[in-house]
């Protein structure tokens, strides 16, 4: 069996490969694709330098692949063109299963970030390839505990519950799908138990013994604040819009799918904060 992992040189890709190895998949059966291949040279797998902008390199890398973990691109606004190349290459290579990392509630969400994911899901379903959609909610790592401890947390998510989980949990779930049978056609809504940002701040305060607050600015003021600290306007707008969606419940999903794939509870907020405070 051959399992190809795209975006393997990023955080999630590396963790997915480590999870595959931990599940007993031989290193010789794993191919990692990415731009900065030196980042995964230590894993003992086959490594190929590939870019989502290079259709020919993708086609060559997918030849003979039984399964492909297709990790979405990180460049919002450029994803759809990149993803079109990936899907076309997978179709040309007739891969046995295409597992795509999407976003929570991609088919109903009105988040700006969801648009390219939903379009990619459509490309995949129309390709005729067997597929699985891993609709990941937020990463817990999106929240900088040390920074929040020093300055407090700010945002625009109000009282919305956010089903964030660690990258490691999402990666392990992906590995579980890749090493299981009868997965084609499944759609998993993946996220942790969920919390509000007030609860997040309270947990940091509890474990640190210091006062920590969450300040809700609303979407417009939050976007302005992000631009004010140096973020590009487009990216700031996406982050503020994501918090707007979170306030409306669009980043909350039950933990059932994730915990079923993991075979254990997802990493708790308490555990994540405790680990972050020690690092």
From TrEMBL:
InterPro entries reported in the protein's UniProt record: NAD(P)-bd_dom (IPR016040), NAD(P)-bd_dom_sf (IPR036291), NmrA-type_oxidoreductase (IPR052718)
Domain NAD(P)-binding residues, every copy: 7-180
A UniProt-annotated Pfam family: NAD_binding_10
Protein name: NAD(P)H-binding protein
Gene source species: Paractinoplanes ovalisporus
């Amino acid at each position: 069996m051959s399992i190809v992992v795209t975006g393997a040189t990023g955080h999630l890709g590396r963790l997915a490969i480590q999870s595959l190895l931990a599940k007993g998949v031989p290193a010789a059966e794993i191919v990692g694709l990415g731009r900065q291949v030196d980042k995964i040279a230590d894993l003992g797998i086959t490594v190929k330098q590939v870019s989502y902008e290079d259709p020919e390199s993708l086609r060559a890398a997918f030849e003979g692949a039984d399964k492909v973990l297709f990790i979405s691109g990180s460049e919002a606004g450029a994803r759809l063109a990149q993803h079109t190349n990936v899907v076309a290459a997978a179709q040309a290579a007739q891969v046995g299963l295409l597992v795509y990392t999407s976003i929570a509630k991609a088919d109903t969400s009105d988040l700006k970030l969801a648009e390219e994911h939903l379009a990619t899901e459509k490309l995949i379903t129309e390709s005729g390839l067997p597929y699985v959609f891993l609709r990941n909610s937020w990463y817990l790592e999106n929240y900088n505990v040390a920074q929040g401890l020093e300055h407090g947390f700010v945002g625009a998510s109000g009282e919305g519950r956010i089903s964030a989980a660690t990258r490691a949990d999402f990666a392990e779930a992906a590995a579980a799908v890749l090493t299981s049978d009868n997965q084609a056609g499944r759609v998993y809504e993946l996220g942790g138990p969920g919390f509000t940002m007030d609860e997040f701040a309270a947990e940091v305060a509890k474990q640190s013994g210091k006062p920590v607050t969450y300040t809700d600015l609303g979407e417009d003021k939050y976007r302005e604040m992000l631009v004010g600290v140096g973020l590009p306007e487009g990216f700031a707008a996406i982050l503020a819009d994501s918090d707007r969606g979170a306030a409306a419940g669009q980043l909350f999903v039950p933990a059932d799918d994730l915990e079923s794939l993991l075979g254990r509870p997802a990493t708790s907020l308490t555990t994540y904060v405790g680990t972050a405070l020690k690092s």
